[in-house]
Amino acid sequence: MADYNNGGYQPQGQQPMYNPPQYQPQTGIDPPPGYIQRSRAAAGVLAILTGAYGLHSFYLGNTSRGLIQLLVSFLTCGFGAIFMMIWGILEGVKILDGRINTDANGVFLKD
What is the pTM assigned to this prediction? Predict the structure, then answer.
């Protein structure tokens, strides 16, 4: 009998071996002495209320992301602000939900 497993042949009745990607929480570090730890609640509220201007990104230290959000909002005469606001609301929910739990330096947000 021929060996069909090497040629990509899947025998009937067997499910393909597929492992879907698992959610991996972001890893972070504890704050070093003297480091001002950012607040999760403040970042989440900033993202929901002022997400179009990227204030939450500046607060968390992601200046390039914040600058992109700010420039898209202003350079499109407000039309891009609609999309940036949706982006901000989604990030705010992720921050408050705990899926985003570190700042730009990799330090955990305080609760």
Answer: 0.73
